[in-house]
Amino acid sequence: MSIIISNSSNIPLYEQVKEQIKNKILTNQLKAGELLPSIRSLARDLKVSVITTKNAYDALENEGYIKTIPGKGTYVANKNIELMKEEQLQKIEALFDTAISLAKISKISKKELYEIIDILYKED
Amino acid sequence: MKVIKGLIIKDLLQLKSYKKTLFIFILIFFLSGLTQENINTTISTVILMITLAFGMFGIASFNYDEQAKADSYILTLPISKKDVLLAKYLLIIILTIIGALIGIILSIIISFLLIHHIPNILTIITTSISYIFALGIIESLQIPCIYKWGAEKGRLQLFVIVAVVALLLGAVVYIIKRFNYISQIQDILNSTVSYLPLLLLIIISFIYYISYKVSLKIYNKKEF
Amino acid sequence: MENILEIKNLCKKYNGFELKNINIQLPKGMIMGLIGENGAGKTTTIKSILNLIHLDSGDIKIMNQDMKKNNKVLKEDIGVVLNDSFFSEYLNALDINKIMQNIYEKWDEELYFKYLNDFKLPKKKIIKEYSTGMKMKLKIAVALAHHPKLLILDEPTSGLDPIARNEILDIFQEFIQNGTNSIFVSSHITSDLEHIADYITFINNGEIIFSKTCDELLDKYGLVKCSKEEFQKIDKKDYIKLKKSKYEYDILVEDKNVFQKKYDIKVIDKPTLEEIMLIYIKGEK
Questions:
Q1: Residues of C in contact with B69 (CB under 8 A)
Q2: Domains of chain C, with CATH numbers?
Q3: What's the pTM?
Q4: Chain C residues within 8 A (CB-CB) of chain B?
Q5: pLDDT of residue B183
Q6: Any alpha helices (H) in chain A, and if so which ranges?
Q7: What is d(CA A120, CA C235) in angstroms, rounded to the nearest whole number?
Q8: CA dist A12 to A16, A18, A50, C225, Å?
């Protein structure tokens, strides 16, 4: 499992860890029921503080991606991937909603919106 | 106690580079002892020099500690300030006694080689105990000075203190001579000569104890 | 969470220097970095914890026990590295084993030799012939070999090259793997602590400026870069301190998101610990 941490990024460290683990769950690189490293060993391997990995795991657990069984360890939750993707889609829809209403106010066409998406995708 | 043993081991290991020097020193005194004419002076000198060498060997451990600022570190270990001082006093007393014992053994060997019989053992023991006594007084003055001013800086202060003590002793001797107490003193010495060594040992133990108490007071006040 | 180390209202006055009412709490299982420039009071704080100096006032508790009253017992559970003080350099690693066997009840000879091997430290060479990095690693090996629960280290990385520093940080992270071991470490090289410390306590001029989680500092604090004109619009209470230079003003703010909502200023960076420290010390209000 590779997790890449950038210290110069403006995204908080814990969020970087969280998003990358989430991505691995959504793309099925981490499978349901799989054991995750402990917060301490992950902190050691990533060279970040224990609080950073703890915050990342807490956030992932709140969103239902992982599950901690006290005394045993942290596992990828037995959640339906389709369902998780559905949730992500809903979030994306909501964000597009805001974008579209902004576009409508400032009279930006659908075509221009598509172009923005194209540009942003390429930049990635 | 175990930690005191640990501290004494530390000092002895620190001094290991000195061991060779000490050995050569002993050898030189042994050999030069063999060339002397007067057996009594020889015995006396050999015992004095070797006891002194061992006493100074112990005092040298302060220099190693000071160089490494070891005291701060040692006090972060489960060791009390009392332990540190007890270990130092024990080390120096033990080394002084070992020095005297080696001196006695060597002077017996020397006598054997030179005059083919053992001289009066009681005289030898009395001689060595009086040197332990004399050296003990110097050490008892020196150790608190080292704790107060440091091993390097404490030398001048020690010199002043030794000078003052010497002056006081001189004054006592002067008074004794001036008022013709010599015969009385001699009477006292003659009547106590058989237990003089024991008396000296008791007095020097007491002096060491006072010195330890003074050092402890200084050491407790110190910050590291 | 349970605290392994608690410093309460510590005061100590010297000629020309003063520790003013120091309060620090280190939760169990965590690493706390004590940062500050040379002479800020880091070493004095560490020496106070260890009973090496007499406090004017204040309480030190380790594992909920008073440090002064339980000095010897508590020191069994602490491993200490001081920057400028150790055994004589004429000793070697084997000598130290012989000494320590008599000093720590829980001295673990096997573990000690394992560390010596791991750190590639020659056993018979006298310490004097070691490099600076090796000396530090030896001190750390000695501090770890009696299974301490708390490590207290004064400037363990100063004078070391980046590789040796990195190795030492690895040792620290390994040490806290069991979840209950904790570390209190001072350093003026803040980048070392930025990564691995859970808490950062910043001391300046004998006073604690802040004691926060490292994440909060790095994620919330912002370094605003703006022009003089833009700066004049900013309310005094909305920033901590600023540093003026010829072309720009660097302003340290406590919460970059709150700041961004209030002011229309484009460049807000994530500050490094060093930048935070620098502006606190050199900046003006």
A1: 84-86
A2: 3-213 (3.40.50.300), 221-282 (no CATH)
A3: 0.86
A4: 47, 50-54, 71-73, 75-76, 78, 80, 82, 84-91, 95, 98-105, 152
A5: 76
A6: 13-26, 39-46, 50-62, 81-105, 110-123
A7: 36
A8: 6, 10, 14, 20
